[in-house]
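From: lab user (bench 3)
To: helpdesk
Subject: output format question, protein + BIS(adenosine)-5'-pentaphosphate

Hello, I'm new to running complex predictions and I'm not sure whether the block I got back is the full result or only part of it. Here's what I submitted:
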Amino acid sequence: MQLVLLGPPGAGKGTQARRLARKLGVPRVTTGDMLRGHVKEGTDLGAQARSYMARGDLVPDDLVVEMVRQRLEADDCRDGFLLDGFPRTEVQARVLDDLGPPDLVLYLDVPGDEIVRRLAGRRVCQGCQAVYHLEHDPPRRPGVCDRCGGTLEQREDDREEVVRERVRRYREQTEPLVARYRRRSLLREVEGTGGIEVVARRLDAVLRAEGLVPG
Ligand code: AP5
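Helpdesk reply: Thanks, we reran it on our side. This is the complete output you should expect:
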């Protein structure tokens, strides 16, 4: 089962992908988290990716493609995976077709003003990377992760001017993939507005309709 979650920044891809991957028993492969991991560890790839990410640009295809190729070759991806944040360009989509075309592309969409609200309120645990939202999914104690007690911080690229650039890049380079997958009848559109549980139920309904989880 090879699934892709597609959608603009802040659409809720990561929030839903964590739950879906558990439910489906496949690994979640998230290029944003992988790249942030490289930056944190100070690898060569991290050093090259850092400035692109900080200004809201996409990291060049050749860097991302090699990272994903290696990840999808790992044993735990043999029976399937859930991609979150990849592909993001035509080049990446062609590479994915060579590695193993998706069985289904779940497209979560939310309007622009909601994107800004969601990203402005997002806080991420510096310990376990758990994601919260100040209004929609707050931690029990302000600034402290419920799961590991780590400190919650705003992502560097969630500042408003960087968010605007990320959305621009998304519209230019990633949104055209919607038409690509629609033409191939692989696209399932799921409204991303409403609470986290509401969106989760919509996604579950699609998976049931596709026979990917029991009815
Ligand atoms: P990445 O980390 O992938 O960022 P993104 O795609 O912009 O997505 P986000 O993580 O911002 O949002 P999300 O959709 O996962 O939303 P979330 O669930 O957190 O990429 C970062 C950077 O890395 C890129 O800019 C680029 O530089 C680089 N990069 C990554 N992949 C690349 C690639 N393939 N090629 C080139 N460069 C690449 O939710 C957001 C907030 O909303 C949270 O606070 C959450 O609690 C809240 N929320 C979620 N759902 C709901 C809901 N239904 N109602 C209310 N609040 C909600």
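A quick orientation on your result: The longest helix spans residues 160-174. Let us know if anything else is unclear.
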